[in-house]
Amino acid sequence: MELNDKVILITGASGGIGAATARQLAGKGMALALAGRDVGKLEMVADDCRKVGALAEAFPGEITEEAYTASLPDAVQTRFGALHALFNNAGVFETGSFETADMSRWDMALDVNFRSLLHLTKAAIPHLLEHPESAIINLSSIAGRMTFGGGGIYSATKHAVHAFSGCLFEDLRDKGLKVATIYPGFVDTGMTAGVQGERSHMIQPDDVARTVHFVLEFPANACPTEIVIRPQFPL
Ligand SMILES: NC(=O)c1ccc[n+]([C@@H]2O[C@H](COP(=O)([O-])OP(=O)(O)OC[C@H]3O[C@@H](n4cnc5c(N)ncnc54)[C@H](OP(=O)(O)O)[C@@H]3O)[C@@H](O)[C@H]2O)c1
Predict the structure, then answer these.
(1) In testing the pocket of ligand 1, which one of 9, 10, 14, 158 has its CB within 8 Å of the most ligand atoms?
(2) Is the CB of 73 under 6 A from ligand 1?
């Protein structure tokens, strides 16, 4: 896809990977629809995007609320006139033993990491399919390819994203819709603040942003459906 003037909706755009992606794509001339709960942080990211000449607007909301996800793509289309790409990036890192788990926390993680992604994707598809080329990029995790102790709900939701993405690609590939999934290891964001190890060895948010950019610019005749990113050096 030629990115100049194309419109992308990014969830979890208030910080970390989502904010880095917004800033990087602003530099490529894309228009940015920025979703998240923290209005102040979304406005700061939008300002950064506007400083390089991009159109950018915050669409704040709680992603687990169906009224919000159902109306968000319409709101973006109304504001920018089109929606060409969706980056499903919002997520929470909920971990701990299943035996002692607070099930309301597990329900919340399931809602944020997977159920909301389904609802937003469903609402976005009619807009995306108005264009001969469009893309959905889903942020899974290396935890969506393996399992680990205490990872029950996080890993399960990221495996669900993996499975859903592969099936969605098969369902809509003939309509020119790319569906790509990215599987990073530890990324240096607020989400990994409690992770032990050398932070400079972690994947950087800009590395994931670069991967999103790579998918968006991929030729129309092919789709990089699954991209795993690992830190080069052990933490
Ligand atoms: N960091 C890692 O090591 C790593 C590795 C692999 C995959 N990932 C995945 O990468 C994605 C981005 O994570 P990150 O590392 O950039 O973490 P982050 O800095 O904590 O960002 C998470 C984003 O999700 C949004 N979000 C969380 N709950 C939400 C809710 N209920 N409603 C609306 N927005 C919500 C947050 O926005 P608000 O706070 O404004 O609501 C925030 O912008 C996640 O899906 C994560 O699972 C991260």
Answers:
(1) 14
(2) no
Q: Which atom of ligand 1 is nearest to the CA of 184?
A: 6
- Is 2 within a domain? no
pLDDT tens for 144-196 read 999 999 999 999 999 999 999 999 999 999 999 999 999 999 999 999 999 99
Position 121 in a domain: yes
Three-state SS annotation for 137-181: EEECCHHHCCCCCCCHHHHHHHHHHHHHHHHHHHHHHHHCEEEEE
- The number of folded domains in the chain is 1
Tell me how far apart the alpha carbons of residues 163 and 168 are, in angstroms, rounded to a whole number.
Answer: 9
Tokens of 68: 């919000």
What is the residue whose two structure tokens read 């264009």?
A: 131
Q: Is the CB of 12 under 6 A from ligand 1?
A: yes
> Which CATH number does the domain housing residue 124 bear?
3.40.50.720
Burial (CB count <10 Å: 0-12, 13-18, 19+), residue 4: exposed
What are the distances in angstroms from CA 191 to CA 187, 203, 205? 8, 13, 11
Confidence (pLDDT) at 129:
98
pLDDT < 70 positions in the chain:
none
Is residue 235 in some structural domain? no
Please list the active-site residues. Answer: 154
Atom of ligand 1 nearest to the CA of 62: 32
Q: Whose CA is nearest to atom 36 of ligand 1?
A: 12
- 193 within domain boundaries: yes
Task: Please report the pLDDT score of residue 23 as a whole number.
Answer: 98
